[in-house]
Every structure is written in C-alpha cells, then in structure tokens.
Amino acid sequence: MAQKGIIDRFEEGFAVIELDSGGFTDIAIDRMPPEVEEGSVIYIEEDGSVVVSIKETIERRKKVKKLMDKLFKE
Question: Which of 3, 35, 37, 49 could connect to 44 by a Cys-Cys bridge, CB 3.0–4.6 Å?
C-alpha cells in the first residue's frame, strides 16, 4: 500500500516529506517527478517510486488559501 505525504521543503538534494502517518522522510530529488514543488501531495509506492496527486494538491492549496484568507480578515 502506498504511503501518502506532502513535500514540506527541499534541502541539500533531498525533498523532506511529511508523511500522513505523522513522521518525516527524505527522498532524493532525482527520484521525484519533475512537477513536484513544496506543498505537493505525493504517494510513495511500495517499490519506492513517487507519484504526484495533482487533484489532491490543488484541493489542499484551495483549503490552505481559504484558511489564510479567513485568518488575515479577522
């Protein structure tokens, strides 16, 4: 079963991934799909490959923007 995560940041040739399970892991940038960026929702497959979920990434960004807009209006 694939592990879900979100790209937290990039540092020194690695993507730092916050896993849905609560921990963190690092994956070499050269193993990442070219379209990934900070905040991308990814799935780490059992074979170690990484797949980006464009749909979930867009939904997450909309949710974060809505929360930020609400926070700064108050």
Answer: 3
CATH assignment of the domain containing 55: 2.40.50
48-67: pLDDT as tens digits: 999 999 999 999 999 999 99
**Number of domain units in the chain:** 1
Distance CA 6, CA 57 (A): 9
Q: Which residues pair with 44 in a beta bridge?
A: 3, 50
CB burial class (10 A; 0-12, 13-18, 19+) of residue 19? Answer: middle
Residue 43 pairs in a beta bridge with: 4, 51
